[in-house]
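User: Before I run my own analysis I want an independent prediction to cross-check against. Here's the chain; please return only the structure tokens and, at the end, one sentence I can use as a sanity check.
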Amino acid sequence: MIPSFAVVGRTNKGKSSLVATLIENDRIAVAATPRTTTYAQGFTFKINDKPLFTVFDTPGFEEAPAILEWLKSVPVPAHERRARVLEFYRTFHAGEVYRFECELLKPILDGASILYVADASHPYRSNFESEFEILQWTGQPSIALLNQIGEGHYEEEWKRALEQYFRKVLPFNAHTSWARDRIGLLEELKFLSDTMREPLALAIAAMRRQLNNRLRDSALVIADLVQDSLSFEIKLDPDSQWRSEEELSRAFFDGLRALETKCRQHLASIFGFHDLNFDDSTQVPADAEQDLFSKDTWEILGLSRKELLAIGTASGAIAGGTVDAMVGGASFMVGTGIGGLIGSLSSAYLAFSDPEIAGFKLGRKKRTMGPYKNPNFPWVLVDRQITFVNTLLQRTHAQREAIHVSEGNRQGSTSHLRAKDKTRLGVIFQSLRWNVRLRSLNESLASELTRLLLNLLTPKPSSSRQNQSDFRPELS
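Assistant: Structure tokens:
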């Protein structure tokens, strides 16, 4: 039997948000209005269709003082308190009086451990203590979580009170806690009961593997995007519907944007986001800060002009050598020499060109736009997707606002690579530009991207979060 947890507390303290985050379900109703949840509902967290644990979303307490008075209306020794709570449930569960309390107590009486959610942005008040005491009477393993909904900070007074009723008190914000925080919480829950230790250890191991797999799957998706984007072109007969080069150019760049949008939708699904709103990230005007071809994006992401010149020469020569090897030396090493020359000259010219105008040609007999030749394009493309994956990693399934991906003012991930790593990527990019279609080439790109994702995206442990699990995904 898998472990189960009942998330309890007062209305609008973040219970449903916590459930959505723990279960990775962005379709659970989360709202600021009272009584979004009116009955207990269990959600089972699965990986590869294997159930690992269940979390119950429950209604909030309403009549705790009256219920506690009913429980204490007759003398009850400590060893009979759970039976007294069960008697309360059997007495009132079929009626409307105390309906919400009966709903929240049912999964607990059925064996669920307790996750009590308190909003530490408001001052502690003693009228919460009747809730604590009722839960204490059930005898179930319990932990209290300090959520932070507003601007106030009353963690210490809440902690001093909660520690008298619950086995442990931890900070946990359902809107900012990513995978490592969830694993850290499960590490704490593992020690609440001997019966939960082994199944939760298995769940934790599965979640760690899942994170690794998600990053690897993301690398494959990004590799496909790079390959498709570097070979993307539009070919039309002279009598086509396109009236001008400007119109064709607009269609060409919109086509590249569409490839990126499709990639990001795939990446979101890898991380379990099914209803993600992309309005603020991919569907943006061409002059917006977040657009793939905005000048701001190209000034921040990708490589510098100096780096592009160096990488262009080295990668062109190595990629030319790859072509020589593919034809068994029949080119008499012409590929190596010309590759280096082309790489150097193209980088020298295009590294100083604007992203909007450089890197394509217009054919004579057939109107052709593309492929896009700017040497910084694949670097910018990779940096943008790494930033997007990083945003997904740090986004919880309780968040409902549109995803906002901003490169900010920092350099992209590729600019921090070692010279030899940049050269390896440059070779792959150059080979793809020459339309070398090898499965091994795509796999090599995915391998390099996996290293970027594993080494550059995993945030370092923060000492301010007590419930974090200190782990880092590893290559295997």
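Sanity check: DSSP finds 15 helices and eight strands in the chain.
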